[in-house]
Amino acid sequence: MQEKVKGKAGVNSSRERILNEAVRLFARKGFGSTGLRELAASAEVNLAMINYFFGSKKTLLKEILDHFFSGYLAVARIDLAGPDDLERKVERFVRGAAIYFAENRDSLLVTITELPRDDPEILSYKANWGRQLMDIIDQEICVPARKCDPDFPPARVVGPMLTSMLASRFLFFPVISKIETRTGEMDIAEYASHISGILLARIKQADRDC
Q: What is the pTM of this model?
């Protein structure tokens, strides 16, 4: 569809619409199965506009990753900061991350599932973001916990574990909802409490042994 854009607001609106539709289509169909012509039609722009803003589908994927990871890191920096005890920080971070994942469900699915193993550029791109998250978790969770438990898992274990457990709600919910007998979807706060409890069980045990 040919679209005439008037002024900066129109340009920004078109760019945002392309990004939003890319997230939606990549989450539902997959990065590899979504064509740029299909994306253009869904976003109601012409193909030239996608090329103008992003240049390639891979650049679109990178921008989605940037948006999701930057928000996730912001949650970690804010919720793990401050003078509170470690238990409170972990509970706050896990709950904040669960809420963030719920609010950005499609971006989460794209970030977690779109891992082109034959594309070193995307792997390196994700690794750079992952390294930043590991550094925060190491300093705010692992180092304090290791004061009482020298064998406490390093951030490269704790970080992926927490992220994977939180993401599993959204990755597997369509299947779990068909298996589970309870009515309704588990509350986010309840879900986060179960996950933080798994990690805190070891931290609390180590604290008692100090």
A: 0.86
